[in-house]
Write a structure and sequence with these properties.
heterodimer, A: mainly beta, six-stranded mixed beta sheet, four-stranded antiparallel beta sheet, globular, B: mainly beta, five-stranded antiparallel beta sheet, 11 strands, 56% strand
């Protein structure tokens, strides 16, 4: 079946603008994760959704970052008032509940804030 | 802070040679995974080793785990140019809600 998809693949924005990044998980995967990968920080966890449970937002770096998951499927990561340090590759992953710890990653969105 | 730390940071070898990457972690684990990343994009799961396992094989991959030393190694045998990528080890956070990755080893295999 289809893997995790993310859009856009690349996004260039100006400092101060808001951006929305989208993730379509693998069908039937109830767990969804967002990670950020930047040169200085490596791969960092941002947020985790599992079914209808309250999301684990402990990795969000500031209140400018938010994410939602509608209908238990598609997720949107929103960054408000973008800063240059937000430039990174944003990766989404999903997995089956009870499917062990292996996560399936999308190709990522490369965000560049000018 | 990062849970897993790989070394070396970069490794350059010739096709046909073996490549060994090491990973250390800090807390107790249920399992440890290795992922591969091409060109800074999506990660692909390679192999998972459970805490009660010491060694696991998958094709040309061999993973070892030493829980007493909190370390793991990934060996790629008979490397190919197509193995050129970054390799990351990952463990689960305490809540089990996310993976914590090391900084990765960048492997370059030249033909």
């Amino acid at each position: 079946g289809a893997g995790v998809s993310q859009s856009p693949s690349n996004k260039v924005t100006e400092k101060g603008k808001d951006v929305e990044l989208r993730c379509d998980p693998i069908s039937g995967h109830t767990a969804l994760y967002w990670y950020r990968q930047s040169l200085g920080q490596g791969l960092e966890f941002l947020i985790y959704f599992q079914g209808n449970s309250a999301p684990d937002k402990s990795g969000l770096p500031s209140d400018r970052f938010s994410a939602e998951r509608t209908g238990g499927s598609v997720s949107t990561l929103t960054i408000q008032r973008t800063q240059q340090e937000d430039s990174a590759v944003y990766l989404c992953a999903s997995k089956l509940a009870g499917g062990g710890d292996t996560q399936y990653f999308g190709p990522g969105t490369r965000l560049t804030v000018l | 802070s990062q849970q897993g730390e790989e070394d070396p940071q970069a490794l350059s070898i010739q096709e046909g040679e073996n490549a060994t990457m090491n990973c250390s972690y800090k807390t107790s684990i249920n399992n440890l995974q290795w992922y591969r990343q091409n060109s800074g994009r999506g990660l692909v799961h390679l192999i998972l080793i459970r805490s009660n396992e010491r060694e696991k094989h998958s094709g040309r991959l061999r993973v070892t785990l030493d829980t007493s030393k909190k370390s793991s190694s990934l060996l790629i045998t008979a490397s190919r140019a197509a193995d050129t990528a970054s390799y990351f080890c990952a463990t689960s956070n305490q809540a089990g809600t996310a993976l914590i990755f090391g900084k990765g080893t960048t492997l370059s295999v030249s033909s």
